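PROTOCOL LOG
Step 1. Enter all chains and additional molecules of the complex.
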Amino acid sequence: MRTMLMALFTTFLSLSPADAAASAGPPMVRIAEIEVDPAHLDAYKAFLAEEQEAAVRLEPGVLMLHSVALADHPNQIRLLEVYADHAAYKAHIASPQFQKYKTSTANMVTALKLVETDPILLCAKAGLAGATPTFACR
Amino acid sequence: MRTMLMALFTTFLSLSPADAAASAGPPMVRIAEIEVDPAHLDAYKAFLAEEQEAAVRLEPGVLMLHSVALADHPNQIRLLEVYADHAAYKAHIASPQFQKYKTSTANMVTALKLVETDPILLCAKAGLAGATPTFACR
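Step 2. Run joint prediction.
Step 3. Record the structure below.
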């Protein structure tokens, strides 16, 4: 299994040598299950989106942050977090953007569960757009 | 809220005009919660990874497929699926790679729950590697 995933990784992560070096180990992947006070849902989403964008833009080790609301329970948020490694995660929670999010939303979040995971395979088009010809898996 | 997200989208999805056209509407995002017979877990993961890689590589409208196993329950799989739109999803489930996965794993999957979501913001580094300077949110 690991051999197969490494083969996929080697074959399809068609990036520069610098990229390959930066992504040698398995990333740290987590699911956050967040319940938000419905009265503050729009404000919460705005703080979350601002934090996601800043983190992926500014922090080399924050590889992905994807947030969704459950269609049947819009105040239930799910966040898929992908960090290059545990050090990148530690740097992230010390960052200004995370601290601003955490402080600003403290009174909006009514429940938080952090679910640790082991990644199987992460595949994305570069740029998240269908017309982009490149993609990567790791 | 929507205005802010659109501003983020416009500002940071720094792609070609073709990319921008392809990603005009909100993507279809779903979470699949999959329970696998532990006796077939490695085989299941191999079929899943093969299907993910082929779909993101071959199908223009399959933007991301990310799979993880829960650390505390390794036979509980979570899959974040991102399609350009509903038509892309319909094309995906008719594709050879999905049909192969579905047929091959039919006797391995003991429970399947599909959770519809409304995306808040999806942000990823291009290439999924920390050293890559570009990223996109949508």
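Step 4. Note key features.
The first helix of chain B runs from residue 2 to 12.
Confidence is low (pLDDT under 50) at residues 1-22 of chain B.
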